[in-house]
Amino acid sequence: MFKKEDYTSQYGSKEFWNEIYTKELEIFTDSDVTPKKDGVQKYIINWLLHQYKNNRDIHIIDLGCGAGAFLFDLAINGFGTLIGIDYSRNAVALTNSVIQKKSYDMYCIELDLTNVMECKRLGIFDIVHDKGTFDDISQRTENTKEMQRMYLKTVRNLMSKESIFIITSFCWTEDELVQLLSKQFVKDCKIPITGKFSKDINKLVTILVFRVK
Fold it and tell me: 121-143 burial, b if ≥16 CB within 10 A, otherwise e?
């Protein structure tokens, strides 16, 4: 459960993420090591591979893409039009450096996802993906509820009635997410976490799929 005192966390700070990705960019520049995917990511990729096994030529946007690991995994698995968004300039620089060196067919841009009008210009996507971004916005120290509202409005503007919104949270429970998103979205399903450590992971992570109401 997400506690109100956690709103002051450093994870809601752009400066924190810029510092993190400055270090990763230096590592990549020196060694050409592609950012690695995390353990949770594989469950989403496997679910997508099953759901879209007959058609991977779809438009996917990754909100808060960080170093681009999810996008790179999608590209390796044959998914189509891919776009990454992040408000950290250093994260975007890192992602675009990898894209250029690996010749991936995608791009990443710097944009604050609470800037509703700018984000609306991006268009409509088949899949909108969020891994921890709503969590980070929930931890901003000023106008938290308003930031959440603006972010969710951005998500809605990127979707059609046929689109899906995949959200991974490390802070909110399933019930809490359903309630927080209830004004504009309805839960479609929960992406299962299976395997050796699934019981422990399920206590820490929630992965849900939503559709527009």
Answer: eeeebbbbbbbbbbbbbbbbeee
Q: Quick one: pLDDT at residue 2?
A: 42
In tens, the pLDDT along 165-211 reads: 999 998 899 999 999 999 999 999 999 887 655 555 556 789 999 99
Q: Which residues lie closer than 8 Å to 21 by C-beta, 6 or more apart?
A: 66, 67, 88, 90, 91, 93, 94
Q: Which pair of tokens denotes residue 137?
A: 């916005």
Please give the structure tokens belonging to residue 213: 């109401």
Return the sign of the alpha-carbon dihedral for residues 69, 73, 76, 78. negative
Global confidence as pTM: 0.85
What's the rounded Cα separation, in Å, for the pair 99 and 63?
17
- Reduced to 3 states (helix: H, G, I; strand: E, B; else coil), residue 185 is strand
The count of domains in the chain is 1
Domain that holds residue 152: 4-212
Q: Which two structure tokens, joined as six digits, stand for 99? A: 């894209």
Q: Which two tokens stand for residue 112?
A: 């604050």
Instruction: Return the residue matching tokens 């999608």.
Output: 74
